[in-house]
Amino acid sequence: MITRIPYLLSCLALASSAQGAHISRRGYTPQAESYIVHQFPNPTWVENIAIRQTGQLLVTLLSAPDLYLIDPISASVHPNSTQGATLVHSFAPLSALLGITETEPDHFYVVASSSPDYAPGTFSVVSVDLSFYDPAKNPDIVTKEVAAFPNAGLLNGMATLDAFKGMVIIADSIDGVIYILDVNTGESRILLQEPEMAVPAGGQLGVNGVKVLPIADTDKVFVYFDNTDASLLCRVPVSLLTLEKVGPVEILQSGYSADDFALDLAGGFVYMADGNTNSINRIPLAGGKVVTVLGGINDTLVEGPTSVAVGRGATNEFVKYITTDGGLLAPINGSTEGGRVVAMII
Ligand SMILES: *[C@@H]1O[C@H](CO)[C@@H](O)[C@H](O)[C@H]1NC(C)=O
Ligand SMILES: *[C@@H]1O[C@H](CO)[C@@H](O)[C@H](O)[C@H]1NC(C)=O
Ligand SMILES: *[C@@H]1O[C@H](CO)[C@@H](O)[C@H](O)[C@H]1NC(C)=O
Fold first, then answer.
1. What is the tens place of the pLDDT at every residue in 298-329?
2. Containing domain of residue 284, as a range?
3. Distance 341 CA to ligand 3 centre (A)
């Protein structure tokens, strides 16, 4: 989740004066087991996450233009050690990274901004090819700008719509639209513009996360999206043949805010990172009761959760990985800590 710069700057100032990180549980009993995989120095805003086929985690930072690789099994042995996270690439002179998605194996696309306050008109999508990446033997990666979005307000969450065609979708949290981008040609257009995506009156962020669920035995998918300040989770069917919407928006829940979220296809749930309550909430894929499975309003375990991803490869889908901003957006009791990656077993 990201906010406007004056608030972020005041939070960063606050962060630099905070005395260490707080990891006490403050008496809240979570329903899921969890452990810290890695904690970055304070202040670090960890913004989004993708998981390689190996099970290794790729995380983007909003507070720096940096992409990190984390092996969740080895890193969690010493979660505070800087050795737990390997800098894959710094995209300087860009300033901040946001959503990330994979199309072909080890071909990732990342939303970037060239301004530290992620101002409108500063966004682009860059590619990251990790096919030949080896931190020890071949640390250089191939990266390039795929497309610039001079007209976008605030590009945020990203997902792969059609891996075969190289089509990805990207939420614009200020303009309240979802773009479609052909990563092979760099061409983009607005795919979806719905009232449920707009910034609500008095709010700052509309549509934030986007994810894609195939609809079995059809050429259609559900595009899931949330709206942070309207506290909505919705889905809308889209045809992969016509690349157009083919049905109305369905509101799956209203009342729980979310930054980004993950679809757990095997388990049948959506896991939402709720920065307003420092919680992870889940809801069945087709809608239903919302249950808090981790964290709580005064719980620093996932302080300022920003995104969730479902385990792959060496781990499995019972492990969900959560990134946090360490309270930079909304510090618990006035104090921040380094952004974290937390594993939740559920
Ligand atoms: C990690 O750092 C936090 C905050 O500085 C500290 O409370 C905690 O004890 C550290 N954990 C380990 C295993 O050193
Ligand atoms: C959270 O902390 C605040 C400030 O200390 C307190 O007023 C509030 O009652 C707490 N909420 C819960 C649910 O513990
Ligand atoms: C907030 O911080 C104060 C001072 O350190 C402490 O007494 C209080 O228990 C804290 N409240 C919460 C909800 O953690």
1. 999 999 999 999 999 766 879 999 999 999 99
2. 5-345
3. 24
